Structure formats: C-alpha cells, structure tokens
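Long-time lurker, first post. I've been practising inverse folding by hand and with some scripts of my own, and I keep getting stuck on stretches where the structure tokens seem ambiguous. Below is the full token string for one chain I'm working on. Before anyone asks, I'm not after the true native sequence, just a reasonable design that respects the backbone. If someone could post their per-position residues I'd love to compare against what I wrote down in my notebook.
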C-alpha cells in the first residue's frame, strides 16, 4: 500500500561513497527548466525592493537587539532595532516532530528537520568591515544566543553559522546578513577534522590546532593580526588565495561557551581582518563560516573552534572538482604580508 503521509518539504540524503550528507530542498519548488541560463541577481534598491529594509514584511523575529539591548519580542519590532534574527522565508530545513529515517534500496535518507534563521544588521550599506566594534559584537551576541537556543532543540546535533557577501559568494540579497542552520547531522568537513584532531590528541596528548598556532606564532610570516585573545592568519595550506582563519589563542572546543571579554576581542579582530581584506581586494565577494564542535552530547574537547574566511579569489574548475585538490595562485606568506600592510 502506498504511503499516504504528506512529503516533508526537505530531505537529507546520505552519499554512501563520500559519506557526505546532502540537503535536497524540495520545498523551494524549483522547476528543472528554471536552471537554464539562470543568472544570480542581488537586490540593489534598499528603499523599494530590499526585504530586510522592510523587516515588517518578513517572518516574525526570534531575537531583537537595539544597541546591545535585548528587546522583548511581545513588544513588536522597535524603530531603533540594530540587529534582528528572523526565520528564513525560504528555509532549507524546517522544524519537525520526527526525522522519519528510512531507506530506498541501498540509500539512506531522512526528513530535512531543523531550523534556518537569518541574522540581519540594520544598515543596508555597511558590511561587517564597516561596522563599529560594538556593532560587530552585537552580531556575535546574536550568534551565541540563537546557538544556545538551537542546541537544546530535539534532533539538533550540529549548528552552522555562515555569511555570504557578494553575488559570487552566493548572496541573493545585498543587505548584509548571516545565516544559521541547525541540523540533525554533522558537517562532513567537521567530521574529518574531528577524526584528525582526535588522532593527534590520542598520540601526542596535545591539540593539533594549538601546535599549528604555536609554530605560526614563532614563524610569524602568515600572521595577519592578533589581540589578547585571538589570532588571524593565512593557513599554511591555504586552499584559496587570501584564505584567513581566526582562532582563539587559548584552547577552546565550543564556540557557544565564549565569554563576554572574548566576544569584544573577537569583534575587534573580525572587523580589522575584514577591513584589511577589503583594502587589499576591494569590495570582493567572500564567505565566512564557523568551525566548532558539534552539539551532539559527545566529548569533542580535542577540537579547536575557529572561523574561516574565504574570499572568492579563484574559480573551481575540472581539476578542483575532479581531483578534489584546490589550486591557490599566491603563497599564504605573501598574502599575509600584503594584508598586514593594509
């Protein structure tokens, strides 16, 4: 007998060969013919067409901040809001009561259960590099608060925080915003990193990332900027020209446990680093995203959380996709030296 249950508007499918999970966002209702000769566009007119400049037209907010102060949701959206978090109007995953895990022949899949929200700053024209330190901290406050909320939700084992700047980086709306997705499966890249970190810890009783940071601080050539609590550098094996990582100097495994004084320092280094990147490359497209331990209840104390910043300085072509090996066209030492001077 056919299953009469309504199909969930999103699926998570498991690749048996690569061991990757893939989101099939069927709820976005794309037709095959719409992909032909499609070009991505960004919203340019903040007064007439930008949905985030008319926040009242969007989904009801889950968090409102006004100059560092949290606003009660029942009071509505105040005119002086400065950072706001809303559910994504076109989510890749949605809250659900069951994962509905199942098999189709040799394949595994489940419903795309989770949460997908957007973190929006007020000024349409200013990206994070152009904000004040306190304004950047407010964004980090929003990340942390929503993270702590998501991690206690049923089925949530991993939370991704990411930011797309520019059409080449995947932004379909020009207004500066980040996104957060809370999902039941762990990012495959994080899984690989966890395995490597655990192996190194078991052999040496040391954090692999801490050892890399120790060497990089002594060597100095790839360091871009540092303050009391954080360090920004171009990784030794940068996969893209001007790739940057921002690490806490002290060993920390869980982003959500970041302290208040650390958030101010993170805000400073984020702002300064993105300013340097903007001066070096102009207003070029980039992505940044968080790499942190899963919230799956397991012990990941061997891992070291950090942010990755990837400028869209290269083009992935046949070799990159086919061999899985990236080609970077500048040494990270030269990239870091250039960024330090900005």
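-- Answer (accepted) --
I ran through it position by position. Result:
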């Amino acid at each position: 007998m056919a299953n009469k249950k309504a199909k969930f508007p999103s699926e998570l499918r498991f690749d048996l060969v690569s061991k990757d999970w893939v989101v099939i966002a069927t709820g976005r209702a794309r037709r095959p013919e719409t992909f032909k000769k499609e070009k991505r566009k960004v919203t340019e007119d903040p007064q007439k067409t930008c949905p985030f400049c008319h926040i009242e037209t969007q989904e009801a907010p889950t968090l409102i901040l006004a100059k560092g102060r949290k606003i009660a949701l029942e009071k509505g959206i105040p005119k002086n809001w400065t950072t706001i978090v809303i559910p994504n109007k076109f989510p890749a995953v949605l809250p659900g009561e069951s994962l509905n895990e199942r098999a189709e022949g040799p394949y595994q899949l489940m419903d795309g259960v989770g949460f997908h929200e957007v973190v929006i700053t007020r000024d349409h024209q200013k990206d994070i590099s152009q904000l004040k330190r306190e304004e950047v901290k407010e964004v980090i406050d929003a990340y942390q608060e929503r993270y702590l909320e998501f991690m206690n939700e049923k089925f949530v084992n991993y939370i991704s925080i990411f930011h797309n700047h520019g059409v080449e980086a995947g932004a379909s709306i020009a207004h500066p915003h980040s996104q957060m997705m809370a999902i039941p499966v762990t990012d495959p890249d994080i899984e690989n990193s966890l395995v490597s970190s655990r192996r190194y810890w078991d052999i040496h009783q040391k954090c692999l990332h801490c050892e890399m940071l120790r060497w990089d601080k002594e060597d100095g050539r790839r360091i871009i900027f540092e303050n009391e609590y954080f360090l920004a550098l171009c990784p030794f094996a940068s996969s893209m020209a001007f790739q940057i990582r921002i690490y806490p100097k002290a060993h920390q495994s869980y982003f959500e446990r970041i302290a208040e004084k650390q958030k101010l320092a993170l805000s400073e280094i984020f702002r300064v680093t993105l300013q340097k990147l903007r001066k070096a490359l102009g207003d070029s497209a980039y992505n940044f995203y968080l790499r942190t331990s899963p919230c799956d209840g397991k012990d990941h104390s061997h891992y070291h959380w950090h942010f990755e910043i990837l400028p869209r300085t290269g083009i992935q072509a046949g070799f990159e996709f086919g061999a899985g090996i990236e080609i970077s066209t500048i040494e990270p030492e030269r990239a870091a030296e250039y960024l330090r001077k900005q």
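A couple of notes from the structure itself: The helical segments are 133-150, 188-204, 208-219, 260-281, 318-323, 332-340. The domain at 189-340 is CATH 3.30.428.10 (HIT family, subunit A). Happy to go over any region you disagree with.
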